[in-house]
Design a protein that fits this description.
single chain, alpha/beta, 5-stranded mixed β-sheet, 11 strands, elongated, binds zinc ion
Length: 335
């Protein structure tokens, strides 16, 4: 994958955990670009955009943007302008003003009326990190931004501003999460290959892959129409083909659509550890129901959403166009 690491106000490519992360990711074969933006005196949205212009042709469809401090707000400006990213990892990010000396250089970047729906259209996966005792950016600022982006926010106890003076010359959790995302991205591509096969058969474009310990165990696609069997959802077929899952460890079920209650129950019952899906099904009974199962003693898989969401949405749009139907119609007929 291609990653950008974007520094904050008064920072640079050599600061904080940036060189460490760049080296670790490059060792794994990723391409990493760490631009240097103008310093505090010249900092504005315009001067930073001008600097970024030279990297625009480096943006690919699998770009990941990693940003620290003021840079997450800069990334929001990029996304709002139509730049798209597969994932954004925001460290100590915020929008608006902070009431300190950094407002002056930051304000053209952070103090804007962001259209978060439009922004989320250009990136479907956001993960955020924030120190519980950040001396510059109050935690509430990060909580508000996480709400606006539907992002998971990881609060790091005593993490400060998650920069070098707070002890962050390395950031292993961030690296681990990027590695997990990169793996999820790879397997979701395979699930989408299955979804396309389903569509070629006139089925709903849904594909699934079962992975254990980083290895594929099975793959399948929806075949409810062809088999005339209502339960032949991609995930059900995948789980069945996987055989004895009790002897497996670290099992992940990848699926291109948020799984229904039947498939989810099968995943829980068969010991799946993680469920990763691309597109929201907007079902009332779905992954949101999992905490209820937990109350009754079930071991609940961890759920990750929004991996390659746009590709799955595009498949559904194609399907709807070909079948001259609508998403609510599809959902009511199939679930
Ligand atoms: Zn299902």
């Amino acid at each position: 994958m291609k990653l950008f690491i974007l520094h904050g106000t008064g920072g640079g490519p050599d600061g904080n955990w940036f060189p460490w992360l760049k080296q670790k990711l490059e060792e794994q074969g990723h391409e990493v670009i760490v631009p240097e933006f103008p310093g505090m005196e010249e900092q504005s949205l315009e001067t930073w955009m001008n600097t970024f212009d030279q990297y625009r042709n480096e943006l690919t469809e699998d770009t990941i943007l990693v940003a620290h401090s003021v840079a997450p707000a800069f990334v929001l400006n990029l996304l709002r302008q139509g730049v798209s990213a597969e994932a954004c990892f925001f460290v100590s990010g915020f929008t608006g003003l902070l009431g300190n000396k950094f407002d002056e250089p930051n304000k053209t970047i952070t103090d804007r009326d962001f259209d978060f729906e439009e922004i989320k259209h250009n990136c479907s996966y956001f993960k955020m990190y924030h120190g519980s005792d950040d001396p510059y950016v109050p935690l509430e600022k990060a909580e508000t931004l996480a709400d606006n982006l539907d992002a998971e926010l990881e609060v790091i106890e005593g993490g400060g501003h998650l920069h070098e003076p707070s002890g962050y010359k390395e950031f292993p959790k961030l690296l681990e999460d990027i590695e997990t995302f990169s793996e999820d991205y790879h397997w979701m591509e395979e699930a989408l290959v299955e979804a396309e096969k389903a569509m070629e058969n006139g089925e709903l474009p849904i594909g699934a892959v079962v992975v254990s310990e980083g290895e594929e165990i099975s793959r399948a696609h929806s075949r409810t129409s062809r088999e005339k069997i209502t339960s032949e959802h991609a995930e059900m077929v995948g789980i069945r083909k996987a055989g004895n899952l009790w002897v497996r460890e670290n099992i992940t079920l990848y699926t291109t659509l948020q799984p229904c209650i039947m498939c989810l129950a099968a995943a829980v019952r068969c010991g799946v550890d993680r469920v990763v899906y691309a597109m929201d099904a907007e079902n009332e009974v779905s992954t949101e129901t999992l905490p209820d199962l937990e109350k009754h003693g079930a071991e609940i898989p961890e759920v990750t959403a929004g991996i390659k969401e746009q590709e799955s949405v595009t498949f559904f749009e194609r399907f709807m166009e070909e079948k001259k139907t609508t998403l609510p119609e599809i959902m009511s007929e199939s679930f």
